[in-house]
Amino acid sequence: MAHPEPLRVSADDDAGPLAADRHWRARFMEHLAATSNISRSAELAGITPARAYKLRRTDTDFARQWAAALAEGYLHLEMEVVRRLREGDLKSGEGDKFDFANAIRVLAAHRESAARGQNQVRDVSAAEVRASIDRKIEEIRRRMERDKARKEAAE
């Protein structure tokens, strides 16, 4: 998949020479929601990750949007793992074996931040979101075990 080119930095923005055009926030949030990749989202928005982090520390609305975008990105990643398991898509884009065990570890490691982001998007407690994520991860683990057992039985 080709990545769009980063945007040019605009010197006429009120934030000085590192400023991007006035639409950088929307592009940053869209890419963050799609990928959960802060560095790449900043690059595509034409800003530095440091600028994004600084704004997150100083602007509560931006911080809320950031958390919601990360939560959405987390769900996209989770659904990609589930899709791969359902469809038997066991290869990466480069033809290598998709690393489901590592993907599940990453999802488990980030479930707290996803829960916080989901809590900000909907009026749901963090405990409810964590429980929902835990159920999904357990479902993925069980599916992987069943697939492994089927493969071993077939061999």
The H/E string reads HHHHHHH
Described by strand count, sense and barrel closure, the largest sheet is: none
Number of domains: 2
Judged by helices, strands and strand pairing, the structural class is mainly alpha
Instruction: Quote the average pLDDT.
Output: 78
Strand content: under 5%
Q: What oligomeric arrangement do these chains adopt?
A: single chain
Number of helices: 7
Count of DSSP E strands? 0
Helix content: 55-70%
Distance between the first and last residues' Cα: 35 Å
Radius of gyration: 19 Å
Identify the overall geometry. Answer: elongated
**Runs with pLDDT <50, length 5+?**
1-20
What does this structure look like?
It is a single chain. The chain is mainly alpha-helical and 155 residues long. It has two domains: 17-58; 67-154. It contains seven helices and no strands. Helix 1 runs antiparallel to helix 2 (38-45), helix 4 (60-87) runs parallel beside helix 7 and helix 6 packs across helix 7. The longest helix has 29 residues, at 126-154. It is elongated and about 60 Å long.
